[in-house]
């Protein structure tokens, strides 16, 4: 995967987000290669890999320190109290959303 292509797809200019985008690329590469039991992303799965990286960057708001650690579970007005719960549904479903596209490249592992 190429950093510059991912930046173009996301409409990002400059180099401020490069480290975060590289983290997305590395995470998606690791996910795909682990799932498919291969050393590199198969050529036919490259567009799927870019879509996964874009989803990862957009949904998890990587690098945004102002976001809450999860979904608001409860809040109070007097003396201000906010409780969060972890939203694990997305992180668990990232591969699931692309499983059909990636299964064709999966190799048998012992």
From TrEMBL:
CDD domains: gp15. It comes from the Bacteria. This is Phage head-tail connector protein. It comes from Acetobacterium wieringae.
């Amino acid at each position: 995967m190429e950093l510059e292509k991912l930046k173009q797809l996301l409409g990002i200019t400059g180099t401020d987000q490069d480290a975060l985008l590289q983290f997305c690329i590395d995470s998606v590469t690791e996910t795909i290669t682990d799932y498919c039991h291969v050393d590199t992303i198969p050529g036919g799965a490259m567009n799927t890999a870019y879509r996964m990286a874009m989803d990862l960057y957009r949904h998890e708001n990587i690098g945004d320190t102002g976001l809450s650690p999860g979904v608001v579970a409860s809040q109070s007005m007097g003396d201000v109290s906010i409780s969060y719960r972890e939203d694990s549904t997305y992180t668990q479903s990232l591969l699931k959303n692309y499983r059909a596209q990636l299964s064709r490249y999966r190799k048998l592992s012992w």
